Amino acid sequence: MEKLCEMATVEDFWCAWNNIPKPSQIFFDGKTKKRFANRSVESFSLFKKNIKPEWEDPANRAGAEWFCRRNFPMQQLDDFWQNLALGMIGETIDHGDEICGARVVDKCAGGRCVSWGGGLVCVNGYAFMNVGSEYLNSFP
């Protein structure tokens, strides 16, 4: 796992976002597995500052994970990942302040999107699962 960048402003976000490949540009397309910076990439993560994308991080220990595993067409996976990232950083997802991070994972010709929650799930796990389901259902 390697940190690619840190973002503190909207400008930082868009500068980084526009220079990091989309999942469709590097994930396995059923024929070839592409490389980024001379490495094979299995996932991208976007986490709040000082929170690592691992369960051992104190912010994630008491949390939960919501994931969607389905075969997205690659363009739809790109859109889903971007909308999830924007919803998380823009706090437009219900209870978005409780989301510690998100990750998109290469799963052969499809993809898996994951969001990690912190404190909310300690009190009400159903609420976090509901947030993920509502988000997925709102996506065309």
UniProtKB/TrEMBL annotation:
A cellular-component GO term for this protein: eukaryotic translation initiation factor 4F complex
Coiled-coil intervals, chain numbering: none
Any one Gene Ontology BP term: regulation of translation
One family name in Pfam for this protein: IF4E
Keywords: Initiation factor, Protein biosynthesis, RNA-binding, Translation regulation
Gene Ontology molecular function, alphabetical: RNA 7-methylguanosine cap binding; translation initiation factor activity
Signal peptide: none
Domain of life: Eukaryota
Family the entry assigns: Belongs to the eukaryotic initiation factor 4E family.
Stated name of the protein: Uncharacterized protein
UniProt organism field: Haptolina ericina
